[in-house]
Design brief:
Elements (H helix, E strand, L loop, with lengths): L5 E5 L4 H9 L12 E8 L2 E11 L2 E9 L8 H15 L4 E6 L3 H6 L3 E3 L6 H4 L2 H6 L4 E6 L5
Parallel strand pairs: 4-5
Antiparallel strand pairs: 1-2, 2-3, 3-4, 5-7, 6-7
């Protein structure tokens, strides 16, 4: 049965977002830069995770997807990912990209495929994530809106 989550925008410097990302060893150094939207997700009033994106025209960079330790293994990772991708699609994104050093198999299960950096749009390659923070991470992509 699909997990239904309540989502609400959260500030990039929200202590609970920063703590969740740091707890999962995910980057936080560029959270406050412009152009990033982050969401907190709850199930029946209980916090379960966070996720966000950066929009570059029809391309988006999925970032900061994290499920809180006590909520893992219950399908929330899929629900958070799909909710963030849905919000980005509503904002105009048609292709999603992400960089990961630890969750490639999870995101491949979510429909993402590995691509060479040379195949990515310049806007994605110019992000701080791609240039410095995750410069050696795997780059994955998937189209958005194909299940509408």
């Amino acid at each position: 049965m699909p997990v239904e989550l309540a989502a609400h925008p959260v500030a990039a410097d929200a202590p609970e977002l920063v703590a969740a990302l740091e707890g999962a060893s995910l980057p936080t150094e560029d959270l406050g830069e412009g152009g990033r939207l982050f969401f907190a997700f709850e199930d029946a009033g209980r916090a379960v995770g966070f996720g966000g994106f950066e929009l570059y025209g029809e391309d988006m960079l999925l970032r900061s997807v994290v499920v809180l330790p006590e909520a893992r293994g219950k399908g929330y990772g899929h629900a958070v990912t799909e909710a963030v991708l849905g919000a980005a699609h509503e904002a105009g994104a048609r292709r999603a990209f992400l960089l990961t050093t630890t969750a490639e198999s999870f995101f491949q299960h979510e429909g993402f495929v590995h691509i060479e950096r040379a195949c990515a749009p310049a806007s994605i390659l110019a992000t701080k994530q791609a240039t410095t923070i995750c410069s050696t991470a795997a780059l994955l992509t998937r189209p958005l809106g194909i299940h509408d």
